[in-house]
Amino acid sequence: MSYLESLRVFVRVVELGSITAGGRDMRLSPAASSARIRDLEERFGVRLLNRTTRTLTPTEIGRVLYDNARRVLATLDEAEAAVATASGTPQGVVRVVAPLVAGRRLVAPLVPRFVAENPEVQVRLRLSDRAVNMVEEGIDVAFYLGHPEESALIRRKIGPCPRVLVAAPAYLAARGTPTAPEDLKAHTCLLLRFPRSPEYYWVLDTPAGPVKLMVAGGFDTDDGSVLTDWALAGAGIANRPRYEVADDLAAGRLVELLPETPPLPVEFGVLTPHREFLDPKVRLFVDFAVKALKGAVA
């Protein structure tokens, strides 16, 4: 087995916390991924991972190997990128993550077009509404909807994404229609929430300026598309990107609420790790995506 490829698998396994996930990311079966790890453990004569039924973490020596292997592989990737730049042919893997709905509707359709134009580049797309650590998880490109915290990441804005409060006619018939922001406190609000997330609130754009409203509901989810499904089923009021529910609004399946005081728009954009030498294939993908998605969420 290739020593370097085994190191790459080991690094991804540690980053993703799972032999199965690390192998899948490298296009390997769980058995093949496990074989790569065993190959390294036999080579060094030490155990590299602590495994339980629920968790997988590197041993002390495994952490040492991970830290050093990651630096070595990053240097090799930069060297390959420099050669690719000199040859004029970008090649290799671009790891991309995007929010679930935006990823399915906006980012996923771009991937076949990009690869058709750049056949030497492989794009590995993950969809998730949870926050990711790009550096620790080895992500090259992360699309976002929101307002990212200031960091060393390179941020490119694609455009503003208007949001809208919506509910099904059946819900409004049963519970009444809110006519002012404060009325939302008496309604079932459908919440997008993650483990260890802070208290939940919506910020509405009013003539007096932004108003932060604490809202509540009997249930929440970490998948934005589920909120839309719940709203369509008459379960409550959802705060969704307008582009996502535009067809439902036009068909009357959902009703826009409080149009005079809508939620503040969020930003749609893309993040890349801060590196002195940005891999040409990553830059190429980002440029392609930003150009293609301009105005897509307006």
TrEMBL record:
InterPro entries reported for this sequence: LysR-type_TF_proteobact-type, LysR_HTH_N, LysR_subst-bd, WH-like_DNA-bd_sf, WH_DNA-bd_sf
Name recorded for this polypeptide: DNA-binding transcriptional regulator, LysR family
PROSITE patterns given in the database record: HTH_LYSR
Keyword Transcription listed: yes
A molecular function (GO) term: DNA binding
The organism of origin for this protein: Paracoccus sanguinis
Keywords, alphabetical: DNA-binding, Transcription, Transcription regulation
Domain HTH lysR-type per the UniProt entry, residue ranges: 1-59
Family in the record: Belongs to the LysR transcriptional regulatory family.
Pfam families (UniProt xref): HTH_1, LysR_substrate
Keyword DNA-binding: yes
